[in-house]
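Both lines are retained for reference:
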Amino acid sequence: MKTMPKRVLAATTGIVAVLAGLIGCVFAARSTLDFLKHLTEFSWWDAFAAFASLLIWVIALSASWSGIRFLRFAWSGRSSPITSWLRSIVVGVLFFFPGFMFSLPITILWAEYTWPGDGQSWFAAMMVSFYIGIAAAILCCIVLLLRSRRDAPSPKSQ
């Protein structure tokens, strides 16, 4: 692929990622403020809400950071190197979306089968898909970090 189509594709992807990251930051700020406003005493649901708020922040900032990198490549035509452990973490966090989206149809079918006729069964499906997305992101981070550690040159060989 020639350089110009790559740069156009990178610019388009970068703009979409930055916009998605900014929208995510707005939702993260709202969820954080809502969490802090309703925090009266600690419960496990509060811990889940704090974790979900933190996850929204991490995903939004990762998307913005990735979009900025795409836009820098589109502008200059050169990409700067990134450390392997940082890339592993960012790609792992962004793997939440495929884990969530690909599991959602299956969990919706499961919820409709388990609770037929219940109009709120989709909420249970979304909660299960949310956990599957978190598990996919954590698993992807671990695998990529182990792989980057294995592929890194050892100090003895340098």
Summary: The helical segments are 3-37, 44-76, 84-94, 96-114, 121-151.
